[in-house]
Amino acid sequence: MLFDYRERVRGEELMDDFSITDGRLTRGLTDLRRLNRWLNGYAPVKRALVPLMKAQRQPLEILDVGCGIGDLAVEIVRWSQRQQSRVRVTATDANRATVAVAAENTSRFSQISVSTCDAFALPFADDAFDVVVASQFLHHFSPADAVRILREAARVARIKVIVGDLHRNAVARYGVGALTRVFGFGEMVQYDAPLSVRRGFVRGELAELAEDAGLEAREYWVPLFRWGLAADIN
């Protein structure tokens, strides 16, 4: 066994260090966007959004928690246009430096607004959004903190909470490590990407977090090495 996939690792990623505000962060966010495009990173969220986009006549109001560079928000807007649907996305992150990069990256899209806020205490009213999404975000937190985030997401969601995250797997860990080295990714993603996989989830763990948060959720697997979770808000 290359590593014990049964246990999540607690190590801190470089992207979790808010004191890093120089070019390493910008390069890391840009590299992460490239990985998401290559490795189907948006698929878990998009899969759960499909029926909502088909059913919704008014623009779908979406909150993206832990937005990073804002690439998921951009992908949702572009994809919704191809689906002939309308969305408005509020992209949020706790890291002010990251939010500044996301604001620049999304500036061409009138459907996207970007703001700094704490996922544990979202500055929005109950039921403020139709959908709350958290993509590749929960693995950064302990189980107890992930449950707190899910509860807060459910508070501000009217219809659904959607989670996309990484499958904790030896092939994924060593594969992404090799890919980031071969294609010359920056030091942040070369370090963070394999560690992210080790902090990811195996079958049933996201569902258990959702249950602890008081949510009834459906967990599903998506290539390449991704988990999705969709919880309907009652």
Would you give an account of this structure?
By secondary structure, the protein is of the alpha/beta class. The chain has a single domain, classed as Rossmann fold (3-Layer(aba) Sandwich). It is built from eight helices and seven strands. It has helices spanning 23-38, 43-55, 71-82, 96-105, 143-156, 170-182, 187-198, 205-212, and strands at residues 60-65, 87-93, 112-116, 129-135, 157-166, 217-222, 226-232. A seven-stranded mixed sheet has the order 3-2-1-4-5-7-6, sandwiched between helices. Helix 5 (143-156) links the parallel strand 4 and strand 5. Helix 6 packs antiparallel against helix 7. The termini are far apart. The model has no long low-confidence stretch (mean pLDDT 94).
Write the layout of secondary structure elements.
Blueprint: H1 23-38, H2 43-55, E1 60-65, H3 71-82, E2 87-93, H4 96-105, E3 112-116, E4 129-135, H5 143-156, E5 157-166, H6 170-182, H7 187-198, H8 205-212, E6 217-222, E7 226-232
Question: Can you describe this structure in just a few lines?
Answer:
With 234 residues, the chain is an alpha/beta fold. 42% of the residues lie in helices and 21% in strands. It has helices spanning 23-38, 43-55, 71-82, 96-105, 143-156, 170-182, 187-198, 205-212; strands at 60-65, 87-93, 112-116, 129-135, 157-166, 217-222, 226-232.
